[in-house]
C-alpha cells in the first residue's frame, strides 16, 4: 500500500512547483522597483557629491583671491560642501544594496555631467566668443550623449537580485568563476606594478589600470557590506558573521591604495584625462567583477545585454567629449633658468625677461616674453665687454669679464 501511494505523493507535489513559478512575475516587478530605487540613489549621490566638490573649490578660489587670513576649513562654504559630500557618498553607498553592481557603477557619469555644467555656470569660467564653439559645443554634445547612455543603462540594466546574506556572499566568494577572475586580476596587477615601479612606465593607462583593478574589488566589497547592513536592518542580523568584517577590511584597504595611485596620477597628468580614461577603465573592470561575482547578467536575454553595452559605449563617448576640451592648467615654474638672465648667453635673439608671472596663476618666476611689455617691466642690462690689452691711456669699460685659460 505504501508503494502504491508514493506515485500519488509525487503527483501532488507538481501543482506546488507550478505555483512557485507563477510567483516569479511579482518578483520581477519588485526587482525593477529595487533597480529604480538604487539608480535614483546613485544619481542623487553623484549629483550632490559633484555640487559639494565645486562648493569646496569655490571656497578655495574665493580665499585665494581675497585678503582673508582664515584657513579654508574655517569657512561656512567649505563645511557646507563637506556635509553635502558625506550625504552624497552615503547615498551612493546605499544604492549598492538595492540595484546590481553592473548598473550602479556606470552611473558615475552623472558626476562628470554635473561638474561640466557647474564649472561653466557656478565657477563662471571665462570664455571668448571665438572659443565657444571650440571649447563648449563638444562638451554639451558629450552631456547629451552621457544622459542618453544613462537612460539606456537604467532601462536595460541587469535585473538579478538576491539577499546579501553571509551564506550567499561566502558561496559567491568560493565559486570557481570568481576565483579564476581573481587569479587573472592578481597576475595582471603584479605585472603592471612591476612595469610601473621597476621600469618607470608612468603611462596614464598603466596607472589607471591599477586603479581600475583595485576599484573592481572595492565595489564588490562595498555591495557586500551595504547589502549585509540593509539585511541586518530588516531583521536578519548579518553583522556577527566573519565574512562581513573580511569584506569591510578589503573595502578599506583597496580604497586606500586606489586613492594612492590616483594621487600619483594627478601629479603627472591632467585631471580631465584622468576623469575620462579612469571612468572607462574602472567601469569596464567593475562590470566584469559584478558579472563574475554576483552573476548580474544571469538569465538576461541578448537584447537587454546588447542595449546595456550600447548604453555603456554611449556614456563612454559622452564622458570623453566632456573632458576633451577642458582648459589645460598653466604649469608651475618655480625656478629661473640662468640662460635667461640679462647679459648671459641666450637661446633667443630678442631675449627673455625674468619677471613674475603676470597671469592669474600662483606661480612666481615664470619667464615672459618682453616684446609687448611696457618699458618699466624690462630689466636693466649691463654691457659686457671683454678685456682688451690696449695702450695705457685707454679708458676701461664699466663692466669687464675676465677670461682665464686653464694654465692661469
Automatic annotation (TrEMBL):
InterPro entries, sorted: Mg_trans_NIPA
Membrane topology type: Multi-pass membrane protein
Residues annotated as transmembrane: 36-56, 77-97, 103-123, 135-154, 174-196, 203-231, 243-262, 274-295, 301-322
Any single Pfam family the record assigns to this protein: Mg_trans_NIPA
A GO term, aspect molecular function: magnesium ion transmembrane transporter activity
Compartment(s): Membrane
GO cellular component term of the entry, any: membrane
Chain positions covered by the region annotation Disordered: 387-408
Keyword Transcription regulation carried by entry: no
UniProt key word Membrane: yes
Keywords assigned: Membrane, Transmembrane, Transmembrane helix
Annotated family: Belongs to the NIPA family.
PANTHER family to which the protein is assigned, alphabetical: NIPA-LIKE PROTEIN 3, PTHR12570
Name of the protein in question: NPAL3 protein
Source species of the chain: Neopipo cinnamomea
Amino acid at each position: 500500500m505504501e508503494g502504491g501511494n508514493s506515485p500519488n505523493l509525487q503527483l501532488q507535489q507538481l501543482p506546488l512547483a507550478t505555483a512557485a513559478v507563477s510567483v516569479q512575475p511579482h518578483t520581477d516587478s519588485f526587482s525593477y522597483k529595487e533597480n529604480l530605487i538604487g539608480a535614483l540613489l546613485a544619481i542623487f549621490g553623484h549629483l550632490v557629491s559633484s555640487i559639494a566638490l565645486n562648493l569646496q573649490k569655490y571656497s578655495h578660489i574665493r580665499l585665494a583671491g581675497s585678503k582673508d587670513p582664515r584657513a579654508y576649513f574655517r569657512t561656512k562654504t567649505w563645511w557646507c560642501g563637506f556635509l553635502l559630500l558625506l550625504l552624497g557618498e552615503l547615498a551612493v553607498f546605499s544604492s549598492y544594496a538595492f540595484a546590481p553592481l553592473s548598473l550602479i557603477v556606470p552611473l558615475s557619469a552623472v558626476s562628470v555631467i554635473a561638474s561640466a555644467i557647474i564649472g561653466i555656470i557656478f565657477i563662471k569660467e571665462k570664455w571668448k566668443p571665438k572659443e565657444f564653439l571650440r571649447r563648449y559645443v563638444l562638451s554639451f554634445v558629450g552631456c547629451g550623449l552621457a544622459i542618453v547612455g544613462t537612460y539606456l543603462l537604467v532601462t536595460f540594466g541587469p535585473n538579478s537580485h538576491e539577499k546579501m546574506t553571509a551564506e550567499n556572499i561566502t558561496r559567491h566568494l568560493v565559486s570557481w568563476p570568481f576565483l579564476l577572475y581573481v587569479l587573472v586580476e592578481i597576475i595582471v596587477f603584479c605585472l603592471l606594478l612591476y612595469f610601473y615601479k621597476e621600469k618607470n612606465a608612468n603611462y596614464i593607462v598603466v596607472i589607471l589600470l591599477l586603479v581600475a583593478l583595485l576599484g573592481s574589488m572595492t565595489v564588490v566589497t562595498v555591495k557586500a557590506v551595504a547589502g549585509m547592513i540593509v539585511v541586518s536592518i530588516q531583521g536578519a542580523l548579518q553583522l556577527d558573521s566573519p565574512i562581513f568584517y573580511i569584506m569591510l577590511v578589503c573595502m578599506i584597504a583597496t580604497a586606500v591604495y586606489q586613492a594612492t595611485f590616483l594621487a600619483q596620477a594627478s601629479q603627472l597628468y591632467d585631471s580631465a584625462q584622468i576623469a575620462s580614461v579612469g571612468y572607462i577603465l574602472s567601469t569596464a573592470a567593475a562590470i566584469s567583477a559584478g558579472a563574475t561575482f554576483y552573476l548580474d547578467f544571469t538569465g538576461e536575454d541578448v537584447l537587454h545585454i546588447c542595449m546595456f553595452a550600447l548604453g555603456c559605449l554611449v556614456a563612454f563617448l559622452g564622458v570623453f567629449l566632456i573632458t576633451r576640451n577642458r582648459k589645460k592648467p598653466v604649469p608651475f615654474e618655480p625656478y629661473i633658468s640662468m640662460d635667461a638672465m640679462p647679459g648671459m648667453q641666450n637661446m633667443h635673439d630678442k631675449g627673455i625677461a625674468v619677471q613674475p608671472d603676470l597671469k592669474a596663476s600662483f606661480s612666481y618666476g615664470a619667464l615672459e616674453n618682453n616684446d609687448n611689455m611696457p618699458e618699466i617691466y624690462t630689466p636693466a642690462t649691463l654691457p659686457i665687454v671683454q678685456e682688451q690689452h690696449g695702450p695705457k691711456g685707454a679708458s676701461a669699460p664699466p663692466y669687464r669679464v675676465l677670461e682665464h685659460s686653464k694654465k692661469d
